[in-house]
Design brief:
12-stranded mixed beta sheet; 35% strand; alpha+beta; 5-stranded mixed beta sheet; elongated; 417 residues; 19% helix
Length: 417
């Protein structure tokens, strides 16, 4: 647990031995492991004296492994004021200043040849996390000597203020670009969004085929064959969560929508229940927005890279950018495995959206009896699945699924483009 500095570092630091002690505070979860220095090897009593001198109380030290750190339960609060954080690389330590109550560390950037602010979570953690490796707590004296060993002075108050101001300016510019970007896209799709809202209101007044509550609880299946068209939404039973239409809140729907007696072969009929799930959130991969196709072009929009400055880390392209189609569509099938014939051929669903575009779903697991269809390809009646695999995003009103027609087919080959 005790390690020796090489001779050249001893001359600069004035100490021979160093060790680490992981803290387990009573009330504040974890704190940074502490770097301890001495000219004699540490024992448990020496570690306890050092922590008490640093302001901790009710210290109870136990040893870790032979090569690992000490561990100590401590009471009290961390020291007030600015703190110092070390990034440990072998025996070399990069020093950062952590201004009191700031969400940023002040680090030296070799690329920028100066001090910059970086998110403090690069080193810190809350009470439910484990300590991050190589991140240690330093005293001001240790920070000064380690910085001298690197030939670099510690950041002054003026340099800290300048780094924090530069970070604040970058955040404000980033937010302004995002707001302009979202406003432009909202205006671009305003007419389509208004039309979809009006259509959803009209469809909301259309009652589902099964209206009585007693019947809805156990809806009878409808007989269909492979390739035969049927309405995707025949009834809606389940959970729907909707937020205010003028906010950027996530919407979520998860509802059973159909029950089928599906004939897959002579004498083989499956009792298949379909469920639609629609969830807001980030976009990933290729996307398709069949209600407003122009939205999908936004992924390649040359304006979007401007939203990705080097710092802070860029945010995902999210449903906020798509005012008409912010929900990812997933369809799930539930079938009794005992009724599944051997060999089993996975199923896909061809979805025909209002206006004509068709997509065929791809099973999440190609061999799944109860599939989760969450990606799709464009569908050509003559060629089958064509084009790249995409995620389908639809408007945030489940009523707009009522005109969607569906038919079950054998699933297309599962491949990645």
């Amino acid at each position: 647990m005790n390690k020796e500095y090489p001779e050249e570092l001893r001359r600069v630091l004035g100490v021979r031995y160093w060790t680490l002690c992981v803290l387990e505070p009573e009330r504040h979860g974890f704190d940074l492991p502490q770097l301890l220095w001495a000219n004699e090897p540490y024992d448990a009593a020496g570690v306890e004296r050092e922590l008490v001198d640093r302001g901790w109380r009710d210290v109870s030290v136990r040893s870790g492994s032979r090569e690992g750190a000490w561990v100590a339960r401590v009471g009290g609060d961390p020291p007030d004021g600015d703190r110092w954080v070390g990034f440990l690389h072998g025996q070399r330590v990069n020093v950062a200043r952590w201004p009191q109550q700031s969400p940023y560390l002040i680090l030296h950037s070799e690329r920028d040849r100066g001090w910059r602010a970086s998110a403090a979570n690069a080193a810190l953690y809350d009470k439910y996390d484990c300590p991050l490796p190589g991140r240690i707590g330093l005293t001001p004296h240790q920070a000064a000597l380690l910085a001298r060993a690197q030939g670099r002075p510690l950041p002054t108050d003026a340099e800290v203020a300048a780094a924090l101001k530069a970070q604040s300016d970058l955040q404000q510019a980033f937010s302004a670009r995002r707001d302009r970007f979202y406003a432009a896209r909202t205006a671009r799709f305003a007419a389509e969004t208004a039309g979809l809202r009006a259509e959803a209101e009209r469809l909301a007044a259309v009652p589902p085929a099964l209206q009585r509550e007693r019947t809805l609880a156990t809806p009878p299946p409808v007989p269909v064959r492979l390739g035969e068209s049927f309405p995707l939404v025949r009834f809606l039973v389940g959970l729907a969560h909707d937020g205010p239409t003028r906010t950027r809140s996530r919407r979520a729907y998860r509802m059973r929508c159909n029950r089928l007696d599906l004939t897959v072969a002579d004498g083989v009929t499956l009792d298949l229940t379909l469920e639609v799930a629609m969830l807001g959130g980030p976009f990933w991969g290729r996307i398709a927005t069949p209600y407003v196709p122009a939205e999908a072009d936004l992924v390649g929009d040359p304006a979007f890279p401007a939203l990705k400055p080097p710092s802070p880390p860029h945010t995902c392209l999210s449903s906020e950018v798509f005012p008409a189609s912010p929900l990812h569509l997933t369809i799930r099938g539930e079938v009794d495995p005992a009724t599944v014939p051997e060999p089993w051929r996975p199923l896909g669903i061809v979805l025909t959206f209002p206006g004509g575009p068709e997509y065929v779903t791809v099973p999440l697991v190609a061999t799944a009896v109860n599939p989760a269809w969450h990606t799709a390809r464009r569908y050509d009646p003559k060629k089958g699945a064509v084009g790249a695999e995409v995620n389908l995003f639809v408007p945030d009103d489940i009523n707009l699924l009522k005109p969607v027609r569906a038919r079950l087919v054998h699933a297309p080959a599962h491949r990645r483009d």
